[in-house]
## 1
Amino acid sequence: MNPTALQKQFPWARLHSLDYPVRLDALGAVLEEIHATHSHVRDEAHGEQGGQLIGDSDDMQQVRRLVEQVAPSMATVLIHGESGTGKEVVAHQIHELSARKGPFVAVNCGAIPEHLLESELFGHERGAFTGAVAARRGRFELANGGTFFLDEIGDMPAVMQVKLLRVLEERCIERVGGTKTIPVDVRVVAATHRDLGERIEQGKFREDLYYRLSVFPIEISPLRSRPDDVEPLANEFIRRLQSDATIGLELTPEAMQVLEEYSWPGNVRELANLIERLVVIRPNGVVAAKDLPWPLVERADAGSGLPEVLAASIAATGGDSGVTLPAEGIDLKAYLSKIERQMIDEALSESDGVVQHAAELLGIGRTTLVEKIRRYKIKH
């Protein structure tokens, strides 16, 4: 390979061709090129690890249908969901199923300081500000021909919202310090965990930008509301980690039940971190319920509502549960789950299927009751 081709493929090779003593502007130009190239490669590599949409729940099947429906178009997509639900995985799946040949480039709008965000998105010209010793392409240019994922769009500063709206409408950008209009062929997918309607009322998010972004909205439910997805997700994370032949992890049915009953405040990300932790603790073993971290078991029990259901059952029989403990023992969790389901069935019947009324009869929140109805697959 000749020196010119080598430097084009590996910009860092140009460091060896600099004249000494090194001029600041010449060194800066090489470093900027290395940074831009590295960013591009990093984003493509990140995209290859985007993963598939895992889950058997009705909610996840609906998300898959929406992704397949919107992917072939150029429609701007707004993904909403709690932190850790897998919004970037959905965005990457949209890119993979589209006809876009360019890269998948992602940027977190909340992780970049406000004074650097414009340069990061649109690039800058040489001399645009102190330290800009060379021109640099922004993420929009790097994503040309591909998909640009704007994560945490709800945290974007107001001044940048105006400039983003112009890009979405005109499909062109201007670098910081530049006057040249640069057309970009980019499919935009945005995501947020915030309530943008509330942000609009607070004057923190532009209403016109919201409508421009939400051409095709996709909602991702939190993991706690789709317990059917816990097992396939856990198995997928184990499968990925078991690519190393030294790892062999298995969860007992009891352990899996605990995972399904847990509220997962950190959503899918928390589950992935737990599996990784279990692999470290028991790399070649079977994980029983007792082997799970105690906060997980404690919070699963606390969030199940079983103590209240049991108390109601005892109160209904005048303080006597009418149950004697068999000599061989009893599966208490299964027994309590049976009581809980019976109570929910009776409450729904008493309230003619009105979930809010049934929740009031049970003394629990409507959202909690909806999750239990899904878990037990109760028809109402």
## 2
Amino acid sequence: MPRALVTGASSGIGAAIVARLVADGWRVTGISRRRGPFEHPAFEHLPLDLSEPNVVAEAVANVDAAALVHAAGVLKVGELGALDHEDGAAMWRLHVDVAERLANALAPRLPQGGRIVFIGSRTASGAPGRGQYAATKAALVALARSWAIELAPRGITVNVVAPAATETPMLKDPMRAGVAPKLPPLGRFIQPAEVASAVAFLLSPDAGAITGQQLLICGGSSL
């Protein structure tokens, strides 16, 4: 069985991805600070605080993975004129710096046909009150497109799955009280399992010719 390395594995989208990949026959190494409720013989927890990115490369040095899924994320909001620069730096470290360090450590060891998927956001195109967050998610698209062309000769694909407001604990975070999530035109929030299904497809042989792309799962929010 191939192995996938999944960050943010203890809850929300990351936990849904872990469950889906294990159900599809993957072995999964899940990174999170605390172990979540998921238990399965094919799942291994790697305790790691990704807010300290300097330890990332060493922590994954012995992980033999065929796929990387960076799902760990945090949302901090703020309008221009009242931005917290430490909040912006924290989001950049987790979303972008960690993605860079993980890919840099794992890509040389990925097998022919390996996969990299980043969880982005529909707000990467811009959203009021979420400028710092949107910038980090837009950066993931730039990284994915750059690395996709670098890794194409080895058959390794790099893509971004970008959901709109998804029904996870982040959706109810009191830190975002001043910027309420927008209900997509479909009349409901995106479900973590729907994001996980898209990730599972991008990791499958059927998606071998899809690379450097951003897949929006927005319920019509981008229309």
## 3
Amino acid sequence: MNLYLVFALVTLAMGGVAWVFVYPLLSGERHTERRMASVARSEPMAPRPTRAAQRSRREQVQGTLKEIEERQTKAKRQSLAARISQAGLTWSKRRFFLTAGVFGLVAFIGVLAAGPGLLAALGAAFAAGCGLPLWLLSFLKKRRLARFLDGFPDAVDVIVRGIKAGLPLLDSLKLIAEESREPIRSEFRAIIETQAIGMPLGEACLRLYERMPVPEANFFGIVVFIQQRSGGNLSEALGNLSRVLRDRKKMKAKIQAMSMEAKASATIIGSLPLAVMTLVYITSPNYISILFTEPLGHAMLAGSAIWMGMGVLVMRKMINFDF
């Protein structure tokens, strides 16, 4: 009896050992466990850039920014040809000087024929020949820059979408040059033409600031130039730039809206003396005619014009915000 019991216990022990060690091999559980372990095993993470590499890239970016700043400082003084180009004109220097001479000659002949005298005719000729062409260039330049800034954020958004869709940067710029309105179309076409003759794309984008001297164009050129030099995620950088440009545009509109009251008040104050003089001349011409017939009246008019001009300049300085 004891022998049977020992035999049963030995058989049961051998079966348990076989169940534990042999059954997993026959049933495929070990294979399943190995597959699950291979799937669950974490892959080695990409090594993070070391501090030395980060410092090297930071120094490279700082060197690039310093180089850009030095270059822009040297080119800060604009030539007459650059101002004509920024105004959107295709004139040469000779044509500009001829136009200024014609303005001065017409003003001289007109004032001399009116009879105030030779000195007044020379002053009018100087103002028309030197002041009027430069004012015209400034007016056309400001209007062209305003049009550029109005559509530039949309152009940057198109570039960002094109890069995210897989287009190269140059193809995105070509899309802007074909589909955008002026002056954005001509400026981006100039970038593409400059790049086509062998200049690097970053350098060509950086020269946009020379033709469009606004901070937004400078930001765009710096972002592309640094990305071409140091690498990085261009779509993310341009996306951040687009948000900055739109925030600046909103801030500009907000400042203009808040300053409209001051501008209206300055306009009323500046035009009030002229309006009063005109009404007095219409209602009582004999009362005010002494200002135009007597030498003392001429001196009073000249003094009043000088003081009014100074007041208008001071009010203009107070209501024009730099933003």
